[in-house]
Backbone:
């Protein structure tokens, strides 16, 4: 932005901050004109004022940030140098919020905030006075989450829908499939096991989309025999489930049932997938090894990181691990691109983002720990609800941290 000569350095900084605040919170001009003609205010905020803009800028600043001194954003700030410019902006919002009429008489003080944060009143006082000597970001965001909570406004009446289009909802069991890197790896494991007629292993952290990947592959290949394991799954349950899916009668012993399954599957080019393999009892994998050997069919074992520990360190699993033909590295976190894809596709790009940049998506990836479940089942439903009730707001770090702090009981970052 080019400024006329009537702006000093501090006023240029004020204009930049005010414009960012107006854009971030999508503030209507009628809310910030403060009685001045809109053209005059906009001219000043464009840096084109033909006279010294001090009078208008000071009033706008007071409207947005109360008595927080704009000099604090300059080089001679009285605030500790541990505060970044973003920290100062959050602090300015906090101070203004505590001065608002709706907070007057509610006893919102350093003492009450310290009780909720379980910190000393002295520490909170230093934090809010800009004197905190350590990095203040985490605590400033936690204070802001208390004063401007997002996601706890369920009693607020939602604006009426202007069209018949239903609001986007994200509910467990009804989340549509989104293509990410994990289903791609699941598909590769299945194809390798099927082509080689051997065992493939895929292990990853909980909540990255392994089961979704299996579900998608099964939908695309109706010849797959899929079993979902749990703590009670033993060799008997494996044989019973395979017999059921193959239409084999339940009569006979396990050995008889095993022979019938092998006969039914021999040279069929079908595939067996065992999900949650890490949870199963130790003998659950034995019949799968035998069936793969004798029926010449592939088997895919999918589970959490513990599956790798079992296959690599426990002696009884050596006969399994020696037959593995595909074993990619364990997936601990989804890449940033997957988090962005999930966010955008599941919200159908309806959530306005304050800062759609690589830096923002990297931060969000860190915030949700690279975990699809934390993003999809934890964060997104609250974001959708909050934006639906507050359509003028944009998604930013403050809002996301507020949801994590007030709704999901997780610390801010």
Residues:
């Amino acid at each position: 932005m080019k400024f006329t000569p009537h702006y000093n350095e501090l006023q240029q900084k004020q204009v930049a901050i005010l414009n960012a605040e107006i854009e971030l919170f999508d503030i209507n001009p009628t809310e910030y004109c403060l009685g001045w003609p809109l053209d005059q205010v906009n001219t000043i905020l464009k840096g084109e004022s033909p006279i010294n803009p001090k009078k208008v800028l000071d009033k706008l600043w007071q409207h947005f940030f109360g008595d927080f001194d704009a000099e604090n954003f300059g080089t001679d700030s009285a605030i500790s140098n541990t505060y970044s410019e973003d920290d100062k902006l959050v602090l300015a919002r906090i101070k203004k919020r505590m001065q608002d009429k709706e907070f007057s008489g509610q006893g919102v003080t350093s003492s009450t905030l310290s009780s909720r944060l379980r910190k000393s009143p002295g520490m909170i006082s230093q934090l809010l006075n800009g004197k905190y000597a350590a990095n203040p970001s985490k605590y400033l965001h936690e204070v802001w989450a208390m004063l401007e909570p997002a996601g706890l406004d369920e009693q607020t009446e939602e604006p009426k829908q202007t069209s018949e289009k239903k609001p986007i909802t994200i509910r467990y069991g009804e989340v549509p499939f989104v293509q990410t890197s994990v289903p791609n790896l699941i598909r590769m494991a299945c194809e390798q096991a099927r082509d080689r007629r051997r065992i493939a292993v895929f292990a990853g952290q909980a909540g990255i989309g392994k089961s979704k990947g299996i579900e998608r592959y099964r939908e695309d290949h109706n010849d797959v025999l899929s079993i979902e394991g749990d703590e009670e799954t033993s060799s008997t349950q494996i044989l019973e489930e395979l017999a059921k899916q193959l239409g084999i009668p339940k009569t006979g012993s396990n050995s008889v049932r095993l022979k019938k399954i092998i006969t039914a599957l021999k040279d069929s080019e079908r595939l067996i997938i065992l999900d949650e393999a890490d949870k199963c009892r130790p003998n659950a994998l034995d019949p799968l090894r035998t069936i793969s050997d004798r029926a010449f069919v592939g088997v895919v074992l999918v589970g959490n990181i513990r599956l790798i520990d079992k296959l690599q360190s426990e002696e009884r699993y050596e006969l399994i691990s020696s037959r593995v033909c595909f074993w990619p590295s364990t997936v601990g976190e989804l890449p940033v691109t997957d988090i962005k894809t999930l966010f955008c596709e599941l919200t159908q790009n309806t959530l306005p983002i304050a800062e759609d940049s690589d830096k923002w998506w990297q931060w969000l990836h860190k915030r949700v720990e690279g975990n699809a479940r934390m993003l999809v089942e934890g964060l997104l439903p609250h974001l959708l609800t909050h934006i639906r009730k507050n359509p003028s707001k944009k998604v930013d770090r403050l809002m996301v941290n507020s949801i994590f702090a007030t709704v999901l009981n997780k610390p801010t970052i």
Q: What stands out?
A: The chain has a mean pLDDT of 87.
